[in-house]
Amino acid sequence: LKDLPSKSWKNIEVPLGDEQYQIYREIALRGKRGGKGAALGAIQQLLIVSAHPFALGRVSSAGKKPAGDICPKMEATLGVLQEVKEAGEKAIIFTDFKAVQRILQNEIRRRFGIWTDVINGEITSNRQAIIDIFSEKEGFNVIILGHQVGGVGLNITAANHVIHYTRPWNPAKENQATDRVHRIGQERPVTVYYPIVTDEKFTTVEKRLDELIQ
Hints:
By secondary structure, the chain is of the alpha/beta class. It is built from 7 helices and 6 strands, in the order βαααβαβαββαβα. It has helices at residues 18-33, 35-51, 72-86, 98-112, 127-136, 171-178, 205-213, and strands at residues 7-14, 90-94, 118-119, 141-145, 161-164, 190-197. A 6-stranded parallel β-sheet has the order 1-6-5-2-4-3, sandwiched between helices. It is globular and about 50 Å long. The model has no long low-confidence stretch (mean pLDDT 90).
């Protein structure tokens, strides 16, 4: 549709935190030594720990530090949301990992003092009602969705920022999710963000997944 506003993409490359790196390395070594089945399982765990080490249920040696402070990816995402807030606009965050959804929910409440609704595969009714409440609030707001509900016809044009905090393997599913926002009714330019964990010494699982999707 020629009359839709513009859509732009931003890759935000971030390092692993110190503790995050140690957990990542343990999982990667275990996956390499355990054969094909172990390697496939390790890939999933590496994606989760890249999103946030707390999501694996590991007890942090960081004590009482906020979750954002030990995960550069989380901190960078909160920084994006700060910019969205200053613009008085709204954002959607996509991730399929339920533990990550909860961490994001808690960190957004801690940082911005707002309750962020989550729509995932467990919510099968009232989805659009939740979206309507999100949309009708004046100014800044955030909602968290799983990619699996990003293709069910939801209309979320009140938001014009989309953060793919974790990525699905299927790029069509990712595009469908983005198009909940970039569709008829959207009046503002849409920005799509990809916070991606990288490392100077090796290709991370998130960087490799980004290359495969590209």
